[in-house]
Fold this sequence. Notes:
The structure holds two protein chains of two kinds.
Chain A: E1 5-7, E2 10-14, E3 19-24, E4 32-37, E5 43-49, E6 55-58, E7 61-65, E8 71-76, E9 85-91, E10 98-99, E11 103-108
Parallel strand pairs in A: 2-11
Antiparallel strand pairs in A: 1-3, 3-8, 4-5, 4-9, 6-7, 7-8, 9-10, 9-11
Chain B: E1 4-7, E2 10-13, E3 19-25, E4 31-37, E5 43-51, E6 54-57, E7 64-66, E8 76-78, E9 87-94, E10 100-102, E11 106-110
Amino acid sequence: GQQVMQIPQYQHVQEGEDFTTYCNSSTTLSNIQWYKQRPGGHPVFLIQLVKSGEVKKQKRLTFQFGEAKKNSSLHITATQTTDVGTYFCAELGNTPLVFGKGTRLSVIA
Amino acid sequence: DGGITQSPKYLFRKEGQNVTLSCEQNLNHDAMYWYRQDPGQGLRLIYYSQIVNDFQKGDIAEGYSVSREKKESFPLTVTSAQKNPTAFYLCASSIARGAQYFGPGTRLTVL
C-alpha cells in the first residue's frame, strides 16, 4: 500500500537552532498534509500542499513540496521550546490519509 | 463551540470485555475516522466513514467495529477479539478531502 517515510525519527536541538524533517515516497504524492502533536496531545493540522514545487510559510515554519511530488519538508527556523512535539506528514490519496511515523523534536533550552 | 469530543479520556477494562469509545462532532463534517496510536508510533487507520450509514475498514480493522447512524456520531467498539487493545485512540473528522480535525483522544488500558 501507500507509504510515506519520514526522517529523522528523532531530533534533539538546542533552542535557537534550525530543524528540518523530511517526508519521502517512492510514488507520486497527490498532496501532503502536515500535522503537529504535542506530548500527550492530539494531532493538529498545520498545512496542506498540493502543487509541485509549492512553498508555504507560517511564521518560522516553511513547508515545501518537491518538484516531482515525491517528497516534502518542514523547516523550523530558530526553534523555541514551544516547537516541541512530533511532526507528521500525511498523504491524502484515493484512500484516507496515510500518515508517516513522525519526527519527534526535542528542544533543549 | 464547534469541535470534536471523545469520552472518556482514560478507560480501563478487563481482558475479554468489549468497550465502546465515544466520538461526537458538531462541525457538520461528512467524514469521520478512527485511528490507533501506539507509543512512539504514527497513526494507523482503523475505520472511516464518508457518509451516514456507510463505513469502510482501514488498515487494522480486525477486532474493532463501528456504526454511523448519525452524522455527528461515530462510536468505536473494541471487542474481545482485538489481541492488543491497549493504545491511544483518536477520532477525527473532515470535510471531504480537507484537513482532519482530531478529538483529544481516549487512552484505553486493558488489564
